[in-house]
């Protein structure tokens, strides 16, 4: 409406000529725009960032999900990576971290910033510090609240958040498959025993046909001490203990030192819907398994052979195959996690004096090695390996093995430098 | 809302008159021929007056297309109606004037009164301003009209560290003095301020714009402590302008009903802005800001105690002639470089650098058929790192749009 910019009236002839010129210019302008648009679409392929190769990513769904399952996967992805908690939607008031994704960036391993501190139990008789806030320390708090302090005399251990990748495959294994590798008395005299951690199931746990209870307890297969039976158990605990998020599964905030429970909660009531938890659990179940890189590289192949030769594969079992699963895409699938899901005595060097369930303090569940080579992409460019992140390289992590793994560790130490590098290169390819 | 609808109805009516007889409208000439500083941006806008009415109206609109690709994944092409802003000004009396700015962002997703203040000019160096004022921190906050910029996106540090457009209810003084080739300006305001959302929000980072979600902030101060904003600027007709500004106050609810709940926690921002034009007509402008926030040590390091960021825009006219029938049209080649670090510091656990930062490069072409209107084509490439400083995600955005005063 700028009157100064409105062209004055023209004579009819001059208008016709001008209109013709204007039309030509408009046509020229539109054609030019079309060329630019076409060039841009072609150019986009070259100047837009490309997707990282599939073997460089830990996130993404397994193949073969139905359309409905894909929708649930996306809903779980949004809750896991997109839902950030604060006081307005229920965070804390005592917590360790404020979202699922902050502990598992890109679904990879965690960082010392989000390391969990568990405390209170040094034997298999149960945690005697539950009334003082065990088993997990909420070391952060909303403004105006004082974070939890470690009670005097409590033993503790720090747990580095693991990668989420491929968890559904591990959950799909049957109890009998896991029990098949148990060798409590080391009957085969290979120096490696391996046993399961039987844990008390929470009220919301619904056993499947393959679960085999033992004295009312069930086999734990997730967590550093194998203290979580399935991914629902793991997820509900993480919402509650890591973020102070209550649900109908666990309706109370974590217990605090010296505070009665329930204490003042600025956001009372269930802070996450059961449907959201279900979606997150489905997301975790259907995350793809990591894709090995450079698997045909001669040094990687040689490294794998060395890995098996020095007996690493006795605990870090390379290959498993699922049986029938409630999720069709997980059924009858062969995968390569490099774990036996069993507890092993790892020696005094890794004995923090703390444990969970029926595990002993030096016993740790064999962690899956898949995705190991991508750890730095989620750990801020460094390695933080072993249960508490104390190892800053793969070699250091191997050399920290003791107990049942001492013989394998010694065999590694005695390898030539070239062979060590091959073995490490293989591990980096996972 | 009713007032806004009434205002819209009035403007539509004016427009209808204009269709009948455009001579009713007069473009209000800018009287001030002194060196224009950022402090002048409030009134340095095209207005239309109606007949002999003391009321003048104006506004601007901007819309664009957006096609972005992040690490190879695109959500496709979107069309965005960024904002439509209406100005209404009135010469109430001799040296007393009123101006308001009402903005509709993303359609009607956000409707804000960004500015609605009365100026009493007692002396050019002594003006009293009261109402909803725009805190003069940096330059972009005061000088944010879309048609003045060659880039479709607003500068990231100016909108996410400085929460532009950032306005509050307050009072203050401002003045400007010009002599020969020089000009000096100052501004000093007390206003309502921030609240504890800045360290407790669904972005999980220190985020000053989060305060804008508080619907009561135009009604009462969150904690009763005013936010102070001070700015001074020095301009030269040839060299350009440099400004330095500070804004600070207590952001948390430290006391309620006489009960002490927490210590007083401060937020402070310090900004430097500049603009100049080189002899080859290259226009350069930018600003840099540091933010300091007192975050409880027992809280999460996700909420940073320090932030910093800024941008620099370089605009080079490459054609200035009649183009496509537009006399004195200008074609510009431009580039913006920008950076924002939302969490400057190191992790307590490792001593390693905290990430949570982004960089962007934005080459662009702009076409101005006349000064009040700009057509813009932007290519924006940015690198965004997460809190842990993992490898950055990369985004390329292709944008085309326009912005024009009306």
Q: Output mean pLDDT of chain A.
A: 90
H-E string of chain B: HEEEEEEEHEEEEEEEEEEEEE
Structural class of chain A: mainly alpha
Structural class of chain B: mainly beta
Helix content class of chain A? 25-40%
With strands numbered from the N-terminus, the spatial order across the biggest sheet of chain A is 3-2-5
Distance from first to last alpha carbon of chain B: 23 Å
Principal-axes geometry of chain A comes out as: globular
Task: Give the helix tally of chain B.
Answer: 2
Number of strands of chain B: 20
Question: Can you describe what's shown?
Answer:
The complex is a heterodimer of chains A (430) and B (406). With 430 residues, chain A is mainly α. Chain A has helices at 12-47, 67-82, 100-103, 167-172, 175-179, 231-243, 274-285, 298-309, 394-399, 406-413, 417-429, and strands at residues 94-95, 116-119, 136-137, 140-141, 156-159, 197-200, 217-220, 320-321, 334-335, 343-345, 363-365. In chain A, helix 2 packs across helix 7. Chain A is globular and about 90 Å long. The relative contact order of chain B is 0.13. In chain B, strand 6 and strand 7 (126-134) form a beta hairpin. Chain B starts with a helix and ends with a strand. Chain B has two helices and 20 strands.
